[in-house]
């Protein structure tokens, strides 16, 4: 049975698929080029799985660049906010997700339509990112959880219902589904979760760069 890989908002059915996606992203760049905001979000999320992430991150990530090694292979360097830099192997980071992480991703999937509806509604009312002051568009904006975080919100929901997260049954999406996060199998639980999320989640629309900055600190 395939073991999913999960980090940040990303999930892949297999290790092979995650590697393919990472290579597709990194191969767009030449040595010395800085990653785009979206690609920085992908790799900064992936780096959280590194066994030495805290050491690699240091005082905080300012940006990530592609460099060439002695064999002319593309590699990634973390440029910290204090001006120092260090290489970080994305291949080292890719590993099967725990069941808890996979189930958490399924609950994220369950409220995806709510998040997209919130984003659309906010864009009709909010013009500027409240943190960086840049103009917000559909493509450059992200929905961010304030207090509680998504993880705490989900933990509170399950705790109130006395449900162990690792006991939640999942079903797999079809292979051609563009969203490869698992699906919570029990429809009534999904409906309860959506209602709970609607009533208790505190969301904010930020620019992708501002949301990335929250991740990298």
Give a written overview of the molecule.
It comes from Pseudoalteromonas luteoviolacea (strain 2ta16). This is DUF3223 domain-containing protein. Pfam families: DUF3223 (PF11523). A hairpin with a 2-residue loop joins β1 and β2 (10-12). With 217 residues, the chain is an alpha+beta fold. The strands form four sheets. Strands 3-4-5 form a three-stranded antiparallel sheet, covered by helices on one side. A two-stranded antiparallel sheet has the order 1-2. It folds into two domains: 5-93, Nuclear Transport Factor 2, Chain: A (Roll); 99-216, no CATH class. It has helices at 15-26, 37-47, 53-57, 90-93, 99-110, 112-123, 150-160, 187-200, 208-216; strands spanning 5-7, 10-12, 61-68, 74-80, 85-87, 141-145, 170-171, 183-184, 203-207. It starts with a strand and ends with a helix. Helix content is 41%, strand content 18%. The model has no long low-confidence stretch (mean pLDDT 91). The protein is globular, with a radius of gyration of 18 Å. It is built from nine helices and nine strands.
Q: Can you give me a brief rundown of this structure?
A:
This is DUF3223 domain-containing protein. This protein has 217 residues and is of the alpha+beta class.
Q: What does the overall shape look like?
A: globular
Number of helices: 9
SSE topology string:
EEHHHEEEHHHEHEEHEH
Radius of gyration: 18 Å
Q: Helicity level, as a percent range?
A: 40-55%
Q: Strand order of the main beta sheet, please?
A: 3-4-5
**Estimated structural class:** alpha+beta
Percent strand equals: 15-25%
Query: In angstroms, what separates the terminal alpha carbons?
Result: 36 Å
Stretches with pLDDT under 50, minimum 5 residues: none
Global mean pLDDT: 91
Kindly state the number of beta strands.
9
Summed up, the domain count is: 2
* Largest sheet: number of strands, sense, barrel closure: 3 strands, antiparallel
